[in-house]
Design a protein that fits this description.
The structure is a homotetramer of 295-residue chains. With 295 residues, chain A is of the alpha/beta class. Chain A is 48% helix and 12% strand. Chain A has one domain: Aldolase class I (TIM Barrel, Alpha-Beta Barrel), CATH 3.20.20. In chain A, helix 10 runs antiparallel to helix 12.
Chain lengths: 295, 295, 295, 295
Amino acid sequence: MEFEGVYPAIITPLNTENKFKEKEFRKVVEFNINSGANGFWVSGGTGESIYISPNEIKNVIKSAVDQTQDRAKIIAHVGSITTKESQILAESAANSGANAICAVPPFFYPPNLQTIIKHYKAISEASGNLPFFVYNLPQSTGTEITPLMMSEIKSEIPNTAGLKHSGPKFTDMTGFINLNLSCFIGNANLMLPALTLGASGCIDGPLNAAPELWANIWNAFKKNNLLEAMEAQEKAIKFSNVIRDFDMHSSIKEIISYRLKIDCGSPVLPLPQLTKSEKSELISEVKQMNIIDIS
Amino acid sequence: MEFEGVYPAIITPLNTENKFKEKEFRKVVEFNINSGANGFWVSGGTGESIYISPNEIKNVIKSAVDQTQDRAKIIAHVGSITTKESQILAESAANSGANAICAVPPFFYPPNLQTIIKHYKAISEASGNLPFFVYNLPQSTGTEITPLMMSEIKSEIPNTAGLKHSGPKFTDMTGFINLNLSCFIGNANLMLPALTLGASGCIDGPLNAAPELWANIWNAFKKNNLLEAMEAQEKAIKFSNVIRDFDMHSSIKEIISYRLKIDCGSPVLPLPQLTKSEKSELISEVKQMNIIDIS
Amino acid sequence: MEFEGVYPAIITPLNTENKFKEKEFRKVVEFNINSGANGFWVSGGTGESIYISPNEIKNVIKSAVDQTQDRAKIIAHVGSITTKESQILAESAANSGANAICAVPPFFYPPNLQTIIKHYKAISEASGNLPFFVYNLPQSTGTEITPLMMSEIKSEIPNTAGLKHSGPKFTDMTGFINLNLSCFIGNANLMLPALTLGASGCIDGPLNAAPELWANIWNAFKKNNLLEAMEAQEKAIKFSNVIRDFDMHSSIKEIISYRLKIDCGSPVLPLPQLTKSEKSELISEVKQMNIIDIS
Amino acid sequence: MEFEGVYPAIITPLNTENKFKEKEFRKVVEFNINSGANGFWVSGGTGESIYISPNEIKNVIKSAVDQTQDRAKIIAHVGSITTKESQILAESAANSGANAICAVPPFFYPPNLQTIIKHYKAISEASGNLPFFVYNLPQSTGTEITPLMMSEIKSEIPNTAGLKHSGPKFTDMTGFINLNLSCFIGNANLMLPALTLGASGCIDGPLNAAPELWANIWNAFKKNNLLEAMEAQEKAIKFSNVIRDFDMHSSIKEIISYRLKIDCGSPVLPLPQLTKSEKSELISEVKQMNIIDIS
């Protein structure tokens, strides 16, 4: 399988003007590769791409490809609010050397399946038919991609390579996997359960703050060591639950900033921001768990 | 009541480059005022503002104010994906002379109530505290504004003037109305039912293709003529259901283009487009209904 | 229209052994007819039929028919958990002289449309094809009856006469009404809005505690007096909201007991019971509203 | 852990009068124990208890206890539509020697948490405080039990021993498990994924038609053999999906009847029935899969 393992949904460090901080981003990429990431989901939901300009997104993707140097795969999220902007990003991602592209379905105006397929086809063609991943994220888009819909998407867009399944219906994983796709679970807490059903790996935000925790799950799984994998998943859940308790975007950025001694900035408003005291509390809770190396 | 009656959610005519066609827009405004519109909901969901650049939106709002010349109220939708862009639009709308602003809650990343209020407050302040309308559109935003939430919004933002309620829970209208707000029903098919509960009027897309139908409801209602109002509502439902059968954005633009002998263009992709034959079928169905003056 | 107007969903007075208190029931029937009820929805959700034995239900229906003596229509709810028990009740209701029967769709195990139709057909035939009403109550049954489903039910069961629509999608009323059915709104707060769309009347629990309030809506509506109807609806909403604040079943029984100086008993557990002090508070709130005659 | 492993949700064989066929039931129990069942979930959703009389249910539970003779645990489902009937069943189950009782929350009238706890407490006390299991089945009851609600239930009813989680939110398993409860996944397709998170086992209908398939998962899991467990889960999914394709109740009864050369009868109407040709097709499909011993 070309795409498999631990794929952090990487953050986009931004300055107070919401401009891309490339130097910090490259350090996050480097840290993740060194901690066991097999690939990256770039400029997606965790990456706040919906809030930043197309030119910034192009740079994010280009930097990700350039920094990894084939040490990890790059799946570039190019799903924008209009078909046209998504196509521009798709073409740029292909030119930058991304290994695959991905996109959420059209959102805001509820689409039917034909509208989704038309949108996806246009994007996929703009990328020169790079491997295409669907992003199933109903809590943000309002559209739940079912295995039946996925099957129709695949038959209309033959270079469909897989999906990130972040929807609530975990049991749909089997339906997706039976389509012979590279299926990533989009929930950091369910990597091992998903792998036991045949998933290819995990893509989620919490992974980029401590990739080693999910790399441990992946390595134990590959060694067929169930108990070790279960222990690793349990630790990963504890870590990821702290992140969720404090608001995901802010706390991922804060933990990475703290671990790498860099300043990744804050999420774009209206996303919640952590106060100084909440940041201290977060770091202190992470330290007390004693699960990751942080000092 | 300052804001009441028939408020078309006006389309934004666009050329094939998605640039604002101001001349056509002014004709649509004029046609609507002459057909009985009491105000406009500008650059909202029907106006595709989510797809067009902030500069275009500023021009849309400015043109609406300039064309109406106080003959109708302008409620300018300034809700954008980021707080910052929403503030820029809010300030511009105020400078252009809009009578009120409105905004959907933050979307894509599900917000809690505090995040919504923070976002709304920032926008409202940027407008210099113009009358503020909430846009309850859960099918697009994923967030249902309840009367309880509305009450908290109102107490935090005292210039809250009303809301457009397009959510599925019609029965919530009473809760909103009891807050002493100007409550518009956001469903063209339910104007009269909403008025009987104390609503201030109706805001929806189908209205701008045939404002006279809803003006008839409003006028009969003001004359306390129930039977006449019911007959008017029945006709309005028939007309609006044809629009919905053919996809709302495309068919509203097509009917207006046909009635006013102008070219309002097509909706922005990924919104569905009507084929030539679908357009003919639509116009032919509208003519056969024999409800509006169209030739 | 044979079935129209104010149809209280009548309570079933029960003693502490959950046995039917026929004498009290007849008094409630009499009070309702004298206060303007045009018919009754008997042994339905408000009637707690799901909790009482088939023999009791048979007696409830028989007493209702006998007491009304053609002064009001009887729609007997015979929808039980099994098809067989529903058939037995349907046959008995027909033999007792009920004017129509009604039934919720199968519940607990989510049914598809064919299962619903098969169930309804069996029941309808057991009644000798009495006028048949569908009960759309998705919050209890988990199944939302749409206008499309209703159309298929009507074509399979030609004696389908109407429905009670208690689902959240008020806008579906038009779709139901376009099927030329007797459509009752199942929400006491929405009688007038529904009438303006062509509904036949209102069926709900709060009606049987103060039928005069809804009779006022109905009478004003029939006189084409919109303002009077609106004032009547506003009062009805206030009354019904107090009932909902205190738990519907308990407070309806308590208000009726108080008004008629009888003891209708408490709802069956697990339905919530009002404490003595809650009962006093309820009655005191109702008195303070000064909307109904109560002393 | 007292309650763990493979717990078939056992069917209730019924004759055409819906009377309990005890002899056949005992054979199903025996077959399941011999095929690796560690316990039974008796007279639950698969057992159609909602359709049969309390006296029949008492006999089902009594027979289950008597037939297992401590070779397997009995969790008796006593959740009925009224609190009183549930209590009668709970007391009887305790007297019959059941190891635990379980109950769905109140259904039909949507309950709040206090109503659920009051209902559960009354039932639990009637059983003399046997270990108590919650049955989370929102698709039937309309009520989703969350980990937070479960925590409150546990603190109010200290003999709470666990739950069967059949809701769609698989990720809630971790929250339930962190309450130190015996958590069974109520989805035959997710036994292994649930075990990797710390679940105690699996309870579901398909298990009683081929318990050996889930016993294989359990045994491989206990040996820490991940690959073997994954292969076993894959086979179990294939088998269970055929059952779901043909309607669950009918096909489980048919496969068991065929395998054991007995007549378990059909499900109670309105549950769907298989035609003769559908039954042949089902058996033929099961044979073609070549996963279980059937001839």
